[in-house]
Amino acid sequence: MPTIIDSHAHVVREYFSDDQAAVIDRAFQSGVVQMINPGVVLDNLDELWELADKYANIYVAVGLHPHEAKSWNAEAEALLIEAASRSKVVGIGECGLDYYYNNSEPEAQRQAFRAQIRIARALDKPVIVHCRDAWDDALSLLESEGGGAVRGVFHCFTGGPEVLPRVAALNFYISFSGIVTYPNAKSIQAAAKLAPIDRILVETDCPFLAPQKVRGKKNEPAYVWHVAEKLAELRQQSLEYICENCCTNTRTLFRLPTP
C-alpha cells in the first residue's frame, strides 16, 4: 500500500478541540506517514511545540498569515527568528498575500511577506506561501526578495496554467488541496495536469476545504488521499506513482527524514 504526506494540516485544538488525538491517529492509520502543521500567528506557539514533541512524524512551520499582517513589527520578527531555530521547525509560514479578504491592508501584507521571505532566505528554510487573488504581487516579491536563493511552496494552489512558468522560474513547488477535486475547479485541474511531477505536493489544509467525496464534513489529514487520487485521475498516472513523488518532493523541500 502506498503512503502519503499531508504537507499542510492545521491539527490544532482550535479546530479539533474534542477529537485532536483521534484525527491524528486516523491519519496515521490511513497511511499518512508525516504531516506539517504550519502556524498562522506568533503569539500562541506552545501547541505547535507540544504536537512536535508528542508525535515523531509531525513537523511544524512558523509564520504570520496575511490576515494578521497588520501585527507585524520588530518584536514579531524577532519572535519568528527565535522560533524558527527550534528543532522540527521545517519552514517559514504560512505567510503571503490575500487580496480576497484583505483582513490586513495590502501594503501591510506586502511588508510582512517581504520580511518573512528575507528570514526564510537567511535561515535557509522554505517559505510556505498563501496566495489568493494576489499572484502578480506575490510572484514579484519572491522574484525580487528571493533572488533565486529562497525555496518554497505555493500551498493550497489556486492558480491556473498561466502562472506555472513564473512558478517554475522560481523553482518553487505547488501543493494541491481538496479544491482540485471540485467539479468547477477547471483552471486548477488544468494546472494539475501540467505541473512537473517533481514539483507537486498534496495537502488538506484541514479543517478547511474537504475534498468533493467528503464535502460538507470537517476536513482532516486522512482525507488527503482524495487529493492524491484526483491528481492520479487528472494526470492519468497511478496512485502509487503520485504518492511516491509527492512524498519525495515534500521530504526534499522540507528536508524531512524518511520514517
Q: How would you portray this structure in words?
A:
The chain is of the alpha/beta class and 259 residues long. Helix content is 40%, strand content 16%. It has nine helices and eight strands. The chain has helices spanning 20-30, 46-54, 74-84, 106-123, 135-146, 164-169, 186-194, 224-235, 239-254, and strands at 4-6, 32-38, 58-62, 89-98, 127-132, 152-154, 173-176, 200-202. Helix 4 (106-123) packs parallel to helix 5 (135-146) and helix 8 (224-235) packs across helix 9. The radius of gyration is 17 Å and the shape is globular. The two termini are 15 Å apart. The mean pLDDT is 97.
Helix content: 40-55%
Low-confidence stretches: none
Record the strand order, biggest sheet. 1-2-3-4-5-6-7-8
How far apart the termini lie comes to 15 Å
Strand content: 15-25%
Backbone structural class: alpha/beta
Overall 3D shape: globular
What is the element string, with H for helices and E for strands?
Answer: EHEHEHEHEHEHEHEHH
Please report the total strand number as a whole number.
8
Largest sheet: 8 strands, parallel
Mean pLDDT over the full residue set: 97
Q: What gyration radius follows from the Cα positions, in whole Å?
A: 17 Å
Q: Helical region count?
A: 9
